[in-house]
Design a protein that fits this description.
The chain is of the alpha/beta class. The protein has a single domain, classed as Collagenase (Catalytic Domain) (3-Layer(aba) Sandwich). Strands 1-2-4-3 form a 4-stranded mixed β-sheet. The chain is globular, with a radius of gyration of 15 Å.
């Protein structure tokens, strides 16, 4: 899977990028994602993620992670079949607030690596169609997150 990382904060060290790359590759394998798939992970500050959250979710507060799934169809949108035009499967974009990740790592008393890994997997599962709108969906998604993080070795 091809993953493009963009650090708008200029604070993410190479070892964190490497960790997230390996974690997301592991998650993709666990979820049977095609190796040709593409996605991006974007690191921003609270101000930028608040603007995104306000513009796309009508919530004027900073959040920890937002995902923009490309395989999700919206009412009235034309369905594009990537197979017919030989395009790589574009999963979408994940946006993570580095500030929120640091705050939450401290709040939950675990490492920054664990928190940013959790947020990356959470965002990745959203790209694959997982959600937590109902109690049943939340149980399924959060169970999957914990299983992936545990099997990878990034536990609390």
């Amino acid at each position: 899977m091809n993953i493009d990382f963009h650090d708008n904060t200029k604070t993410i060290k190479e070892d964190i990028i490497d960790l997230l790359y390996r974690l997301l590759q592991f998650a993709a394998k666990e979820e049977n994602v095609l190796s040709e798939a593409e996605m991006s992970v974007n690191f921003v500050d609270n101000k930028e993620i608040q603007e995104i959250n306000r513009n796309y979710r009508q919530k004027n507060t900073p959040t920890d992670v937002i995902s923009f799934a490309m395989q999700e169809t919206v009412e009235g949108e034309m369905d594009i079949n990537d197979d017919e035009v030989n395009l790589p499967l574009t999963l979408g974009d994940i946006v993570i607030s580095v500030e929120k990740a640091k705050e939450q790592a401290e709040d939950y008393n675990h490492s920054f690596e664990r928190e940013i890994g959790f947020l990356a997997v959470h965002g990745f599962l959203h790209l694959l169609g997982y959600d937590h709108m109902t109690e049943e969906d939340e149980k399924r998604m959060f169970g999957r997150q914990e299983a992936i993080l545990g099997e990878f070795g990034l536990e609390r």
